[in-house]
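Worked example 2:
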Amino acid sequence: MSYTEIYAFDKAGLPRLYGEVRNSWRGARAVWNIMEERHLPPFVPGYVKSCNWYHPGMTPEEVERRIGYKPSRALYYDGKDEPAREIWNLVDSPEIPEHERIVLYTTFDDCLVRAENLPAVIEAFRKFGGDTSLKEQADILQRAADDPEIMAVGWNQTSVNGTTWDNDGGYDDEAEKSRPYNCLTGDKHFWLFDELRRGAGS
């Protein structure tokens, strides 16, 4: 079974696996599906539009009946991350409630949250709703917020991902193993609330 993993960074900037929630499909993918349903028009995949039975004006229910499942932008990629990018771009929309934008940011690769911002993330997770693992994740984040040794947290949205915070800091030739990522010296990450403030100011 896959997990959504939460990593905690200590005062030296080094990570450790702090908690995990099964199953990862209730994490980022569930959030993307909910954001799509709340804020985007129904999605019709390109291959459906080329079917001889399809015609403009078909209802989403008719399309779903024909193909046997509910199509989602999150399931389709064409090399440019389209059309899933339509969902991800919602993070920059001032029309989207801030708590939903916070949640969406946490599903992105390389996102970190400073300890002082954890209460806002916890509140956003508890407010988001839907069939997700966010409330379970919020419990882990509350533990981290109460831990004085933790300076930041980050996510690995699926445990089947081979690259995680504990091995993404480059390769140690002498030890012949990957180094953990250091959030104080590394430059691959972004800070969620820095991005949120930039978006609010644009």
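The chain has one domain: 3-28+82-201. The chain has a mean pLDDT of 91.
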